[in-house]
Amino acid sequence: MNRKIIPALLASAVTASACTIPTDPLDNNIAYPFRAQVQNATRPEVHNKYMNLFEAGGGDRHLFIGPVGVPTYDLTLVDGVINHVPDGVRAVIGGEIDHTTKMFMTGRGDPRAIFKPTYACNPDTDALQIELRFVTWQDQPTGGHICVRSSFEESHEFRYYPPGNTLVDPNRECIKVTLVVIPTTDLPPQTSTTLSTSTIPATSTTTTSTRTSTATSTPSSAPFVDLTSSGFRFVGCAPEERWTTDGAFRTLPDASTSTDTNTNAACAAFCTAGGFKYAGTEWSRECWCGKAVVATRWPATTLASLEGCNFRCTGDEGEICGGDARLSLYEKCDSGEACENVVFT
Ligand SMILES: *[C@@H]1O[C@H](CO)[C@@H](O)[C@H](O)[C@H]1NC(C)=O
User: Fold this and answer.
1) Mean pLDDT, the chain, whole residue set
2) Which of 176, 177, 178, 179 to mutate to test the pocket of ligand 1 (most atoms within 8 A of CB)?
3) Which InterPro entries does the UniProt record give (predicted)?
4) Nearest residue to 125 (alpha-carbon basis) of 24, 17, 43, 30
5) Considering only the top CATH level, what class is 22-186?
6) Most buried among 23, 57, 95, 280, using CB within 10 Å?
7) Rounded distance, CA 100 to CA 115, Å?
8) HSE on the CB side for 149, CA within 13 Å?
9) pLDDT in tens, 40-80
10) Distances from the Cα of 87 to the Cαs of 16, 32, 115, 192, in angstroms?
11) CA–CA separation, 57 vs 82, rounded Å?
12) How far apart are CA 260 and CA 263, in angstroms?
């Protein structure tokens, strides 16, 4: 590494000690394997933790720090985009928009999160480190930053905080973090028990089996449960908000809850108690209710449309509770009419 000293910088910006920042620009490609560490020295609950990959539906990987997901030692940077080649995924931004937007990894064409490798000094040790400074996401204005916010099982999930964001929820703080490249010279064996899937909820496995099942019967692997005897029919896998241009934030905007005991029946009961006609489960643990479905979000009746609903319920691994930005949508049957699930073809 070619480390050139900048005397002026050292003299002016530095009090006691500071690492020497090389002047040679860093390439936007990092071919050696690395871990991604998050830093925010004022926030010990996230400081120096590592980005884990959590297997989600459709081959996607969601990004967490804390006990959720699998420690990942072999990330690379390709044209400023974080890649995990073994899974064929790269970091993108989109989906699950509320006050911030999700950053996750996928093989699909969602807008990439673009980073610029930049030398900096470690806030604790003063050692030279390479940070991944957030630049933009494809086709979007530059600016904003990456942050992490509290999620299930004491974890934090990665989010993108847009520039000039006014949609701040004081109860759902998103902690601004610096992403740091930690080169992994000695790769631990990827099959060791420390890298097992023990911390991954059941959503991580067997998603393919649920995606091929038909909707005309309801074995445990079918993407919905038959609630007709309790007055709800399954109407499909409805899209949730995906892009800021989607209009309405939520497909079922009127009430919601998030629990470790989520099932479709429990959600239907929750929404019934609130007097709502529609109940939808999402993201394993969420239950959403609506008086109506936002018009542009009505689900299709094709088998293919069910594929996005592939997360298992927190309260019952045998059931599907929506997916990533997808609701397993149930509708209260009108009294007097036959209560039948939609048939998917
Ligand atoms: C740490 O997080 C707080 C809250 O998001 C933020 O205001 C602060 O700028 C962050 N510090 C760094 C160094 O990123």
Assistant:
1) 81
2) 176
3) DUF7909, Kremen_rcpt, WSC_carb-bd
4) 17
5) mainly beta
6) 280
7) 18
8) 18
9) 999 999 999 999 999 887 788 999 998 888 889 999 999 99
10) 44, 17, 20, 18
11) 20
12) 9
Helix (H) and strand (E) counts for the chain? 3, 22
- CA-nearest of 88, 73, 89, 81 to 30 is 81
In this structure, what token pair is assigned to residue 286? 């969420």
- Could you tell me the distance, in angstroms and rounded to a whole number, from the CA of residue 121 to the centre of ligand 1? 16
Q: Name which of 237, 233, 246 is nearest 298 in CA terms.
A: 237
Tokens of 293: 């479905």
Nearest atom of ligand 1 to the alpha carbon of 176: 5
Angle formed at CA 246 by CA 279 and CA 298, multiple of 5 degrees: 40
User: What's the 49 CA to ligand 1 centre distance in angstroms?
Assistant: 15
- The structure tokens 């600016």 sit at 143
- The residues, any chain, with a CB within 8 Å of residue 39's CB and separated by 6 or more, are 47, 48, 122, 123, 177, 178, 180
What token pair was written down for 114?
């673009």
Give the C-alpha separation, 199 to 65, whole Å: 12
SS3 297: helix
CA-to-CA distance for 160 and 92, rounded, in angstroms?
Answer: 10
Amino acid sitting at position 300 = A
Beta bridge partners of 287: 257, 281
CB 133 near ligand 1, within 6 Å: no
The residue written with tokens 């999930």 in the block is 157
Distance 149 CA to ligand 1 centre (A): 12
Percent of all residues in the chain with a pLDDT value above 70, rounded to a whole number: 80
Q: What is the pLDDT of residues 237-290, one digit of tens each?
A: 998 865 444 455 678 988 888 888 999 999 999 999 999 999 999 988 889 999
Is residue 253 within 8 A of residue 294, CB to CB? The reply is yes
d(CA 5, CA 23): 7
How many CB atoms lie under 10 A from the CB of residue 67? 11
pTM of the model: 0.55
Q: Give the residue extent of every domain in the chain.
A: 22-186, 228-332
